[in-house]
Amino acid sequence: MPAYILQRLGMMLLTLWAIVTLTFFLMHAVPGGPFVSERMLAPEIEAALNAKYGLDQPIWVQYLAYLRGIITFDLGPSFKYPGISVNTMIADGLPVTLQTGLLAVICVIALGIPLGIIAALNRNRWPDTTVMLLATIGVAIPSYVIATVTLYIFALRLGWVPTFGLDDWRGYILPVFALSGFWVSFVARLTRSSLLETFEQDYMTTARAKGLRPGQVLFKHGLRNSLVPVVTVLGPVVANLITGSFVIEQIFALPGIGRQFVLSITNRDYTAIMGITIFYAAALMVMILIVDLLYAVLDPRIKLTSATA
Amino acid sequence: MTIPQMNPVLSVRDLATSFFSQRGEVQAVRGVSFDVFPGEVLGIVGESGSGKSITAMSILRLLKASGRIKSGSVHFDGQDLTALDEADLRDIRGNRIGMIFQDPMTSLNPTLTVGEQVIETILRHRKATRAEARARAVELFELVRIPSAAERLKSYPHEFSGGMRQRVMIAIALACDPKLLIADEPTTALDVTIQRQILGLLKDLQSRLGMAIILITHDLGVIAEVTDRIVVMYGGLVMETGPVRDLFARPMHPYTRGLLASVPDLRDETHRRLTPIPGSPPDMAHPPTGCPFTPRCPHAMRQCQAALPPIFGTGHGARCWLHHPDAPSSFTSSSGGEVSAQRRVRGPSS
Hints:
The structure holds 2 protein chains of 2 kinds.
Chain A: H1 2-29, H2 43-52, H3 59-71, H4 86-121, H5 126-140, H6 143-157, H7 170-199, H8 202-209, H9 214-242, H10 246-251, H11 257-266, H12 270-298
Helix pairs in contact in A: 1-12, 4-5, 4-7, 4-9, 4-12, 5-7, 6-7, 7-9, 8-9, 9-12, 11-12
Chain B: E1 10-21, E2 24-36, E3 41-45, H1 52-59, E4 67-76, E5 79-80, H2 86-92, E6 97-100, H3 114-125, H4 130-143, H5 149-152, H6 162-174, E7 180-184, H7 192-209, E8 212-217, H8 220-226, E9 229-234, E10 237-243, H9 244-249, H10 254-261, H11 302-306, E11 317-318, H12 330-333, H13 338-344
Parallel strand pairs in B: 3-8, 3-9, 6-7, 7-8
Antiparallel strand pairs in B: 1-2, 1-4, 4-5, 9-10, 10-11
Helix pairs in contact in B: 3-4, 3-6, 4-6, 6-7
């Protein structure tokens, strides 16, 4: 097991390197640069800026310099906000994104899975049709529509929650709802279909033939086997939610990293794009590793062995 | 072999089970009656779709959601299992009636150790500590001859071979000393040599523990060695029933004769050809009004299509118009030599 994790971490570094390289060269292949704007800068100033940030160097020199920075966990200075490093940008935005993101993750797990179980247990009866109707709506309606409509009703019309910011616990309700709505629906549907499939398995009949109580049959024999596909999607979902959503952060005026990411692209803020991309990729890979480790916990048939073992 | 003169452990009467879907009703079992006596092995034989497995599942009400027992009764220990509420029935399942299934590869939960799957059954029905239940599980593994029983409790099903898994299933079914064991095609998914071992084990356990067994199979070869009495099913009905030797020596129903003719006999040195029964089983969504075997029966008469025959004969009886007192006598009169009649169906020797 430790050997397996070590090997996976090694693979992750390699993947990160590939992502860094690809993003770096793609970004530089796009025309324009951080200091190009409607108001023309004097050529001397532009040249000076380029020199300061090393943009006058050949591209491979820039690339090597960037790699050197990453190895020391230095993501470089922001090109757009003088005096602010990308590390600071991420550190500033992350707590906000992480708070709303983790609350959304909790909602996805605490609501999505139980709703799926309720639906599966009441197949084709009203609790099932209700949950599935809501889940279909949740999957179909984009999050920005949920965000704006709920914002209009609950904040503007009814005044129950603030229209922006997270100063008050009530401020979290709408962003978390908008963030998790899709995934709660998705996980509910997935849990339902996975459980229904498990119910058809022979070992479920065996469990009933032993005289086990319905709760034992469901939780001990059914749920664990049904959770494998759910855990599979939860990994990327968690990575997605904790790295932020531009749209939701924009609508609710939350200063998170999702918002910074998209702004950095329109700004051609090279180092910020790179930094946030690397951060997202790393978060995703860590979550996928956790998912793979969870598989082995859920299903003993899955053995985690390193390729050389 | 005489039928034991005592009260049956299990008494199934006019059991009818159907499956309901949007396309309509499928009448899987259409009025089945039989008794199981203490300490006997009753074989239920039939092709797939004959209703034999559904009969077994109906006894413990383990049918899938779309299945329903329409009528009839299943008496066990003075209680009608079809009328019992779910909680009381759960106290019987795995406790006084054990059950094993066809495919030991899929009947065990892959995510739990085999030990846990035995122990949870014991803890469900017995007042025992975990340690006591564990000790009992070791005992059961030894009983079903799983080598190094104590260590094997910690293994997962995928670490066992098919035969060993079926032994685990048997251990689970026997965990609480059941009075009745229902074995639904217990050897079908296994290799021939393993089949023999498992059947031998079942027979041995049956005589040591004194329980009754219902052995469901499509394989007459399996049933001949271990059963006392046989029920032959076809089209959701009992076609013939009788003591095993009688039934093999003098099969009364053309379907039973067909079944016997399609079993290879290794001792037969004349290299007769196996004779399959032509045609296919009836569509149970639209069961025929008469005898369901009519379209495949070499002796079919007009009467067979018109009305469903009752079972003629007691002890050894068959649901066939040929045994009606007024029936043409050709079939019945030759019934004394049915084994040779069956053997007459020979191909050219090769």
